[in-house]
Amino acid sequence: MGFFFQALQRATGIAAEPPKDRVRETVTVQDANVTALLYPGERGKPATQVPNKRQVHWVVPPENLVAVLHPPVMESSLMAQEQCRILRTRLLEIMRTRKLRSLMVSSAMSGEGKTMIACNLAYMLSQLEDFRVLLVDADLRRPQVVRFFQIEAAAGLPTVLTNGDAWEDVLWQVNPNLDVVPSVGHTEHSAELLHGARMEGLLRTVSELYDLVILDAPPLYPVADAQVLAPQVDGAILVVRAHSTPAEMAQQAAALLQKKLVGTVLNGAERIAHKGYYQHYLRRGSSR
Hints:
Number of helices: 10
Largest sheet: 8 strands, mixed
Number of domains: 1
Strand content: 5-15%
Structural class: alpha/beta
């Protein structure tokens, strides 16, 4: 996992050795035919049919949704979008070689950008043909997905886990390939709910209906919620913020995830200058 672990090394200043049994990573940014790489023979499975599914409507796309460009288009936005494509491609490469139907996105502590990464990754994956994604806001203490996607939800994952409500009843559709199970409010006993049979049953059910289930998980510190959730998913991405995440805490977080860790995303890094490269695309776009 060269790129991801190098990112962790750059963020923390401490070398991070990739696990010996980790899947080899192939780096490529040309993902036009990437859907053909996923689970041969499983394409064409019926889409999830949910009656009266609530639709998300935007007048203007969310500000931090870099997967969707909207005026004014800046060079930094183009660069961020391309980084999302690279992340998508590398994740799909991992899915080629191992079972990965559920993926949690977490961080060592709050404020490192895990929700932004989870939402943008989910949206970018949903742009692939016939690739269905479910995004679950599993941060029951501080849910942020509703704010990110501008969803006005009155119920969500907490009511499913607490009252046994049907998960389909709290489902929102962002686009034809992306559904969201939101969370609202602050939930007491969140660790117990995430560790319960209802959560386990939910993940088992939705993993059969979607190509990938992405969970915006709580931070690994200081609460136990994400540590409870990790054994129930197939993989995990750790988000670390450059010049912010303490080195020791980042290493401890990676150790907690152990074999579930498929990669680390470096957020907030100083971008490498590509003078004039993206300006070419901006000029072409504005002339059409």
